[in-house]
Each structure stands twice: as C-alpha cells, then as structure tokens.
From TrEMBL:
SUPFAM superfamilies per the UniProt record, alphabetical: DsrEFH-like (SSF75169)
Organism classification: Bacteria, Pseudomonadati, Pseudomonadota, Gammaproteobacteria, Moraxellales
Coiled coil: none
Gene field: tusD
Name listed for the protein in its UniProt record: Sulfurtransferase complex subunit TusD
Entry keywords, A to Z: Cytoplasm, Transferase
Gene3D superfamilies: DsrEFH-like
Localization per record: Cytoplasm
Native species: Acinetobacter terrestris
Length: 122
C-alpha cells in the first residue's frame, strides 16, 4: 500500500514531527510512501532556520531519510523560500532552499494523490 504524507504544518508544530516519525516508520518497514510539503509545511525546507544545539533539527532529520522531498513552489515563494533558479527568475538576490528539497508545482501533488492508496495530512 502506498501512502502520501501531506505536510501542511509549520516546523514548530508537533504535527510536523509526527509526519517525520511516520515517514521514518514507513521507511523502516520498507513500505512505499511519498511526501509533499505544502502551505506552512514548506518552511521545513528553509535552510536559514536556526535550531538550538540541544534540539533536533527537523530539516536535517528529513534530509537523513534520503528520499525525494518535493515542496510546493508557490507556497514556498510566498513564505520567502526559493531555490537558485526561482531566485533568478523572480529577481530575488539570494536563495535558501535546503539541500535535498526541490520546488515543484501542484501537478506533482495531484499525481501523488491520484497514485496513493492512503493520504495522511499533518
């Protein structure tokens, strides 16, 4: 059974951490899953987030999974997150998309919803 994890909660939310926990569990059981970061969930992909040394860093934890990490481009740009290509296109002086994450359109979400057997939103 394939699962789509739709992460819409900000990184400061416990739900964002629950999404990571489910992804880790699915990966450990070799179960098929995809993720998609949307709405406030795109903030996980901000490379400029600071985390105190005594706390886990959500972005780094997602990167450790070594899976595809698609992020809604419109939601990201609206929240000040961009990759190098979109920074150039929209004349933004810097880019801050965390390594391993990629900006994609909503068509990717539509495809993921259509192909998933189960959708879990956080």
């Amino acid at each position: 059974m394939s699962t789509l994890l739709l992460i819409t909660s900000a990184p400061t939310s416990i739900y964002a951490w629950h999404a990571l926990g489910l992804a880790q569990a699915l990966q450990a059981k070799n179960q098929a899953f995809r993720v998609f970061f949307y709405q406030d969930g795109v903030s996980v992909a901000n490379a400029l987030q600071w985390t105190p040394d005594d706390q886990r860093h959500l972005t780094a934890e997602w990167q450790k999974l070594a899976i595809r990490l698609p992020v809604c481009v419109s939601a990201a740009l609206a929240r000040g997150i961009t990759d190098q290509e979109n920074a150039k296109r929209h004349q933004i002086s810097q880019h801050n998309l965390a390594q391993g994450f990629e900006l994609v359109g909503l068509g990717e979400l539509a495809d993921a919803v259509q192909s998933a057997q189960r959708l879990v939103q956080f």
